[in-house]
Amino acid sequence: MPTEISTLSPQQLAAALLEIDAFKLRPEAPFQWASGWKSPVYCDNRQTLSYPALRSQIAEALCGLVRTHFPQARAVAGVATAGIPQATLVADRMGLALAYVRSSPKAHGMGNQIEGKLAPGQPVVVVEDLVSTGKSSLQAVQALREAGYTVAGLVCIFTYGFAVADNLFAEQGVELRSLTNLEALIAAGLTAGKLQPQQVETIRRWQQQPDTWTAL
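User: That's the sequence. What structure does it adopt?
Assistant: Structure tokens below.
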């Protein structure tokens, strides 16, 4: 069971995620993402759903981001698929309408890309489990905007802090708020003895050029 903590600082959350193996750190034998990129880090926040105390803490922390940064939000939209359970927890706690956004319209049935009935023009906060390049998140934002909704911003559990994501969010005028990030993960990994300084150097090189990085 993960250690229970009363509040979630970025490093405490990163440590909790390491404890339940939601983060895999493998600089010497990198993972391959669907995009084809090689990565020394793999993050699977779906693991948190199996730990009620941590799941609840994350949900409340995400609500805190919404209350603080996007108080105008009147609805929550999860990005399929991993953002859906997090969005559901947030919407339930805050008493807000809920929808979710597919990566593309369904090929059958009603052909919907957005599932759920929100009021026209309603300010929506988008919920993701993590942000890497930002492309899938911003596709969901674009779908909501094209459907006539105002996107207040986006909250997530984890971000890798890639420059390409920061630039894309800035270009699209979308404010991103995350509970934790790669810097916190590195600090937590070093504290827990799960990362060595030379491995940190590898991870930082990868973060700077993730699209061309290869393990040495």
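The chain has one domain: 10-208.
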